[in-house]
């Protein structure tokens, strides 16, 4: 373990290493995993490696007690899926489960311990209006939004404003594509629908194909602003590769799929940083091909490598945070989501809302 590496990261990469952890390293590991809300996942990682007996009793008690809350959240999400299926099935509306809801419904082992505060699903754009009306008729509501935010969601975004049922508490994000309409990347949702995998237990409900599932997670992490709190998404990428890469031609299919969906750049970042940070077993030839086809230029690449490695992985408890790097990545996420003119107006309006909330210009007119 490097002096500059978090013990939480070491424990994930090499769970057998916990047999040699000192008290100080355990303190650092638990702190780092707690900061990234992955204590429960780390507990299963250690247990699956046969190393639970190596954990000091207080540490193991903390790790295993962290499992209860994610389990509760998953019960809520599973219940919400059943409600949404009943509502949308009655209207003949099919939908795709995304991210955590998909992992849970597919029974992926790495869903154990994974927190799920919301439920992401995707419907076809042609069914979006009817789906929203059906969900509202079924008791789901949206938080109060001003005119500007309503316009922003419905004109430029890849989803409608978040919904929730007042008594069930799960936020439901209904997508019609995986990136905003204003994004520099334009993955066609109909291509993803064509290869979606139906869930036999719930007719009309499907999940993305294995390559698309990884591409969506990579895109969410590196292009949709999630990178500031994205270590759990990187764990998802590592785990998706672990269960899917055994398929014949997985890597070649993944690269070609990224090209057809225009998602080569986020795939390159996902492969590069999963291997660098988590030691994910990605073939060198695959990474080299991804670099040749999809990597940024020689000026951008080292900048991204420095920023991401300072922000994404857990840091040692005694290490300083990297707020400047985080701020630059935050700006990058907005730059990728909007053209310059729209971005300037959007950030200007957000600034007015923060510092001059009573100004009419803070909410209207729309961009």
What is the gist of this entry?
This is Nucleotidyltransferase. It holds the Pfam family NTP_transf_5. With 367 residues, the chain is an alpha/beta fold.
SSE layout:
Elements: H1 7-13, H2 23-35, H3 39-48, H4 57-65, H5 68-90, E1 95-98, H6 99-106, E2 118-122, H7 128-137, E3 141-142, H8 147-156, E4 163-164, E5 171-175, H9 189-194, E6 197-198, E7 205-207, H10 210-223, H11 231-244, H12 250-260, H13 264-278, H14 284-294, H15 300-311, H16 323-337, H17 340-355
Parallel strand pairs: 1-7, 2-5
Antiparallel strand pairs: 1-2, 3-4, 6-7
Helix pairs in contact: 1-2, 3-4, 10-11, 10-13, 11-13, 13-14, 15-16
Describe this structure in words.
This protein is of the alpha/beta class and 367 residues long. The protein has three domains: 7-66, no CATH class; 77-208, Beta Polymerase, domain 2; 209-367, no CATH class. The chain has helices at residues 7-13, 23-35, 39-48, 57-65, 68-90, 99-106, 128-137, 147-156, 189-194, 210-223, 231-244, 250-260, 264-278, 284-294, 300-311, 323-337, 340-355, and strands at residues 95-98, 118-122, 141-142, 163-164, 171-175, 197-198, 205-207. The strands form two sheets. Strands 5-2-1-7-6 form a five-stranded mixed sheet, with helices on one face. A hairpin with a 6-residue loop joins strand 6 and strand 7 (205-207). The relative contact order is 0.10. This is Nucleotidyltransferase. InterPro entries: NTP_transf_5 (IPR039498). It comes from Candidatus Thiodictyon syntrophicum.
What percentage of residues falls in helices of 4 or more residues?
A: 55-70%
Strands side by side in the biggest sheet: 5-2-1-7-6
Helical/strand content category: alpha/beta
Question: Number of helical runs?
Answer: 17
Kindly give the count of domains. Answer: 3
Query: Sheet bearing the most strands, described?
Result: 5 strands, mixed
Low-confidence stretches: none
Number of strands: 7
What is the element string, with H for helices and E for strands? HHHHHEHEHEHEEHEEHHHHHHHH
- Shape descriptor: globular
Pfam families: NTP_transf_5 (PF14907)
InterPro entries: NTP_transf_5
Protein name: Nucleotidyltransferase
């Amino acid at each position: 373990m490097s002096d500059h590496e978090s013990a939480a990261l070491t424990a994930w990469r090499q769970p057998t290493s916990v047999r040699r952890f000192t008290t100080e390293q355990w303190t650092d590991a638990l702190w780092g995993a707690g900061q990234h809300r992955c204590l429960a996942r780390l507990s299963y990682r250690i247990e699956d490696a046969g190393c639970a007996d190596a954990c000091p009793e207080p540490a193991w008690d903390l790790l295993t007690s962290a499992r209860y809350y994610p389990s509760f959240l998953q019960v809520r999400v599973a219940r919400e899926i059943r409600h949404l299926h009943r509502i949308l099935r009655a209207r003949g509306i099919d939908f795709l489960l995304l991210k955590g809801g998909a992992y849970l419904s597919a029974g992926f082992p790495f869903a154990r311990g994974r927190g799920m505060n919301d439920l992401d699903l995707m419907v076809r754009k042609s069914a979006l209006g009817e789906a929203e009306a059906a969900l509202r008729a079924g008791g789901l509501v949206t938080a109060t939004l001003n005119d500007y935010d309503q316009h922003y969601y419905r004109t430029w975004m890849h989803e409608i404003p978040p919904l929730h049922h007042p008594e069930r508490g799960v936020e439901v994000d209904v997508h019609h594509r995986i990136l905003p309409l204003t994004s520099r990347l334009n993955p066609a949702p109909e291509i993803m629908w064509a290869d979606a995998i139906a869930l036999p237990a719930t007719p009309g409900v499907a999940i993305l194909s294995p390559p698309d599932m990884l591409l969506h997670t990579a895109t969410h992490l590196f292009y949709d602003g999630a990178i500031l709190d994205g270590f759990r998404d990187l764990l998802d990428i590592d785990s998706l590769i672990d269960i899917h890469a055994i398929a014949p031609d997985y890597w070649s299919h993944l690269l070609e799929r990224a090209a057809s969906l225009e998602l080569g750049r986020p795939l390159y970042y996902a492969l590069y940083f999963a291997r660098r940070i988590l030691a994910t077993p990605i073939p060198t030839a695959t990474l080299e091909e991804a670099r040749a086809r999809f990597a940024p230029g020689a000026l951008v690449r080292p900048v991204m490598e420095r920023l991401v490695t300072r922000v994404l992985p857990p840091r040692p408890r005694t290490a300083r945070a990297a707020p400047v790097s985080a701020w630059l990545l935050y700006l990058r996420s907005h730059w990728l989501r909007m053209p310059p003119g729209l971005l300037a107006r959007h950030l200007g309006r957000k600034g007015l809302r923060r510092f001059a909330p009573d100004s009419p210009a803070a909410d209207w007119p729309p961009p």
